[in-house]
Amino acid sequence: MDRRSLLATSFAAGLLALFPQGAMGQDSGRFVDLEPVSSAVLAPTKVVIWLPPGYDSSRERYGVVYMHDGQNLFDPKRSNFNKVWAADKSALRLIAAKKTKPFIIVGIDQPGVDRGRQYFPKRMLDFVSPSVRQKLQKQSNDLPVISDEYLTFIVTELKPRIDAEFRTKAGRKHTAIAGSSMGGLISLYAITRYPHIFGHAGAVSTHLPLGDPNWSAEERNDILAGWRRYVKEKLGKPAGRRIWFDHGTETLDAFYQPYQENLDAALVANGWNKGRDFSSKVYVGTPHEENAWAARLDDVFGWMLQRW
Questions:
Q1: Nearest CA among 5, 91, 19 for reference residue 53
Q2: Is 282 in contact with 160 (CB distance < 8 Å)?
Q3: Mean pLDDT for the chain?
Q4: pLDDT of amino acid 140
Q5: When comparing pLDDT for 236 and 140, which is higher?
């Protein structure tokens, strides 16, 4: 290598050392990988945080979206299915287009075989018949539902740490929670149980049938009635909260339409205004999987965070 080439190489290396990731080109934000977060109520849980462009060079504070199934949000190598929501890419598009202000994403890993009982809204068991409740419990191998413990972990352990270690806007106006399928259920449950913490929820392809969707007509009607009671007695009036709902029409999502229409009607009857307080979209021809959710995540974030 001649002297001129050596000087050029040394100069480039110096620039890389001086400037943070993305500073010499497009800033794509950065990830912070927390070691499994210890908890008094759950097994240690891995958490990955995405910080938006400009975070390191500013003193701004940011809203936060807490998302379930963290393995399937960012990195295909960590995904259960080798496909992801690409949540950071969606955020980058919306921020660049000025459709939302920059925000932080907190991805919380799911616990594998315990995912179902961690994401199942425990209090819904009180709104179904004993026979349906028994079937749901058998589908969980008769293990206890731990969704209340999971939300306790987020609200009393994880969120206080995020708010202490990062520049967040900690109030409910700038705090959202989102997920798909059972992750949609736990997001709806979170905004029900902690209305003072979460002002927005994203319930994508929400698994409103609760368990195996091949219910009898009588069982299905029992669950539909249970959701109507849940909305009236537990979710309550919107009180400034906003929820995004959607579903496709293929694979598992093919079961969801009557459940979502039932829930929509219950929301309206309870004072929720469609379009203002909640959104309910149908994506015709789309299945129940990560690529479909990635394709509409701009819609989800764009509607849910438009007032940030």
A1: 91
A2: no
A3: 92
A4: 84
A5: 236
